[in-house]
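Exercise: predict the structure of this protein bound to adenosine-5'-triphosphate.
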Amino acid sequence: MKIEAKEIVKTYQDKSVLTLKGTHHHLVFEPGKIYGIIGPNGSGKTTLLKIMAGLIPMSSGNMLYNNQSLTHQTMTEMTYSSHSPTLFSRSIYENIAYPLRIRKVDKQMIDDTVNGLLAEFELNKIQTQNAKHLSGGESQKTALARALSFSPKVLFLDEPTANIDPKSIRIIESALKKRNHHDNLTVIIITHNLSQAFRLCSHLIFMDQGQCLFSGTPEEIMATSDPIINDFISYNRF
Ligand SMILES: Nc1ncnc2c1ncn2[C@@H]1O[C@H](COP(=O)(O)OP(=O)(O)OP(=O)(O)O)[C@@H](O)[C@H]1O
Ligand SMILES: [Mg+2]
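Solution:
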């Protein structure tokens, strides 16, 4: 699914927190690519991601999905997962199965898919545990497995590896790359981990103070002369 964000503005009361204007007023997300959104705290990354995912309204501007406004059908093909996911007070297994149950997928297919995801994310040993009582990392892995269960076309991820141990980070990155490669999954990921952005993304967007200062390849961002971006990168040496 091709996604376009045109001249998006978001204001809370009188405070403008997102203003896509200037050179990068029109962001285009091509299908089947992995995009990274980076930038300092409070720069508007989550606000932009939630607007794109159709979770919060924009104050002005235009979002297009395959050249159309957001429809219910489009919503069913996209999913959003954050670093502090909301899970149901049921088992890990049931949380991952939920998107398939509401889509009336056949029981055997649900079992096969959920078992595959439990193994892939190394959650099988704790699959019967109540998801309300998980560690931060276990919750994030469960949420991500749930997000992938119904094979969405677009995955919006807000710092999905914020509390995750190094081995699990690689498991998650491999899961994303695999689905991107085999299923043409589009991923738009916010991360504070620049090396992760470089491992995963073919395109990066840099946000600062509600504006997009850069949109281009990882190689292009390393070559930029913008002092704000260079300062940000200098704290992210790897
Ligand atoms: N519901 C809200 N009401 C008022 N202001 C808000 C609201 N949500 C976000 N903001 C403000 O919008 C700005 C951008 O917030 P946002 O969460 O998009 O930043 P971010 O780039 O995701 O930051 P971080 O890296 O810390 O997650 C911040 O100044 C924040 O205080
Ligand atoms: Mg955020």
